[in-house]
């Protein structure tokens, strides 16, 4: 999506010549994808170890580990994601998670758009009834490197955000190894940002630091219990 200032003349509103450049920092895929792979493999390795020791917990004992895959994140322009929870008490789980989106769509075209991010979080959930069953409330510390723009408006912003995410939801227990986990998270904190007129021209319009409060995550997740 191209802004009005770079339509037609090849120059911005101040008369400066524009070079079409997609403003995007070079995201490193290694940290995010490595963490996603680790989160995906950890429950499988732990479950295999328990089986080899003959210590696979019965349903009434509750499994310790749960791996979540949020389908709603994939609908947000193919954002890869994984979160791992570990039960430390009847009503508490610790959580680690990561999300990654490195895709730019219609690259270097006037209608370019992206919602790039790599996000990492650590937190906990409280389950009033029992872990991995029923209502839950959660809090997590979160860092996000992002570059988004051209979707709802031409304005594009990239930066680093730090803060706390709070949410809640409900987990439907389908069988001894599978849940459907619904939830909503919002988060707030500080961000160091650079803003551009549009993803096509790359004309910088603003930069600095500011506080923020934003929606964070809609969860419609499959939760595999080990």
Which characteristics define this entry?
53% strand; single chain; 13% helix; mainly beta; Porin; 2 helices; 8-stranded antiparallel β-barrel; elongated; 226 residues
In short, what is this structure?
The protein has helices at residues 29-53, 71-75; strands at residues 65-70, 80-89, 92-101, 104-105, 113-126, 134-149, 156-175, 178-196, 204-225. It has 226 residues and is mostly beta strands.
How helical, in percent, are the residues?
10-25%
Question: Distance N terminus to C terminus?
Answer: 45 Å
Return the average pLDDT rounded to an integer: 82
Q: How many independent structural domains?
A: 1
CATH architecture assignment: Beta Barrel
- H-E order: HEHEEEEEEEE
CATH topology: Porin
Q: Quickly name the level 1 CATH class.
A: Mainly Beta
Spatial extent as radius of gyration: 21 Å
**Beta strand %:** over 45%
Give the biggest sheet.
8 strands, antiparallel, barrel
Uncertain regions spanning at least 5 consecutive residues:
9-22, 53-60
In one word, what is the shape?
Answer: elongated
Number of helical runs? 2
Classification by helices and strands: mainly beta
Spatial order of the strands in the main sheet? 1-2-3-5-6-7-8-9
The count of strands amounts to 9
Explain this structure.
By secondary structure, the protein is mainly beta. The protein has one domain: Porin (Beta Barrel). Helix content is 13%, strand content 53%. The chain has helices spanning 29-53, 71-75, and strands at residues 65-70, 80-89, 92-101, 104-105, 113-126, 134-149, 156-175, 178-196, 204-225. Strands 1-2-3-5-6-7-8-9 form an eight-stranded antiparallel β-barrel. The longest helix has 25 residues, at 29-53. The radius of gyration is 21 Å and the shape is elongated. Residues 9-22 and 53-60 have low confidence and may be disordered.
């Amino acid at each position: 999506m191209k802004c009005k200032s770079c339509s037609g003349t090849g120059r911005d509103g101040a008369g400066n010549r524009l070079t079409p450049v997609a403003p995007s920092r070079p995201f490193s895929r290694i940290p995010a994808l490595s963490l996603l792979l680790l989160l995906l493999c950890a429950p499988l390795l732990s479950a295999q170890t328990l089986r080899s020791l003959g210590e696979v917990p019965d349903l009434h004992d509750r499994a310790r580990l749960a791996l979540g895959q949020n389908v709603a994140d994939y609908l947000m322009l193919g954002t890869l994601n994984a979160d791992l929870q570990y039960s430390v008490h009847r009503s508490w789980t610790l959580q680690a998670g990561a999300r990654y989106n490195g895709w730019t769509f219609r690259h270097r075209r006037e209608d370019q758009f992206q919602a790039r991010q790599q996000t990492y979080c650590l937190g906990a959930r409280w389950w009033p009834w029992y872990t991995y069953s029923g209502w839950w409330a959660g809090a997590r510390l979160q860092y996000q490197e992002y570059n988004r723009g051209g979707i709802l408006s031409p304005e594009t912003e990239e930066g680093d955000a730090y803060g706390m995410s709070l949410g809640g939801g409900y987990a439907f227990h389908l069988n001894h190894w599978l849940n459907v986990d619904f939830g909503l998270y919002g988060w707030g904190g500080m961000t160091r940002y650079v803003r551009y007129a549009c993803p096509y021209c790359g004309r910088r319009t603003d930069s600095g630091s500011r506080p923020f409060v934003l929606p964070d995550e809609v969860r419609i997740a499959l939760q595999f219990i080990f």
